[in-house]
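Board notes (copied after class):
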Amino acid sequence: MLHEKINLGNSGYGTRDTILTTYVQNNLEGVPARRRPAVIICPGGGYEYQSDRESEPIALEFLKRGYQAFILEYAVLEENETKGLLPYPQMDLAKAVAYVKEHQEVWNVDGEQITILGCSAGGNLCALYSGFYQQDWFIKKTGYSQKQMQVQAMILCYPVIDFRAGWPKEDDIRRRISVEEAWQGAQNLVTEQTPRTFIWHTNTDGTVPAENALLFAHALLRHGVDSECHMYHRGCHGLSLANEQTKVRGEHLNPHVAGWFDTAFEWLEE
């Protein structure tokens, strides 16, 4: 297995470089030309950090199921930065998608089977990205073509969708993320070309209200996008896999919600 951290440079915000961590497995001798689907994981962390609970444990689950997995360390809020954070995390994701496609032969990746997965703020990153990469201004800003940035599926775990729907609670944080009206609600960027999407959330999430998932699910339905939305009746925010592997506190263990991964994988394979 190839496990390394690749520096993709800085997209223009703050001092941190974009890092792509690879979990690339070798093919068996009998199937040397096999191309595997890939997933790029965008952990949550309120656009302030990336949660390790939503990083490697999820990557390893995909690895076990035959995927090549990648974790993206994207731009987050920095105290001394005066400009808005967006769209720099989305530009980081564009770099990651394009980089994986550029290396698809070396990494045994099927470039037509790339999924992006985002948790919480990482879900916002992915949801906005799915709209941005279809727009001319973003194509011009990144220097990539739409085909280079295109993904085939999206998994959103308890995502932030609309900055006016309960997160962030502080106006200052919202302004530092973005003041662009068009970017306040990712549901408004959904089109018929939005990638097929799997969403899950919990009704008792006290950090990011479940309304966020419903806003995006409704937009997908309205535009005829293949989608699936699961609303679990109970669970805290940031559950990740909701099992022993990602448990830090007792509330992170939720066997009922833990079924989301198998359900999402089944949906991906349809």
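Comment from the instructor: The chain has one domain: 5-269. The two ends are 27 Å apart (CA to CA).
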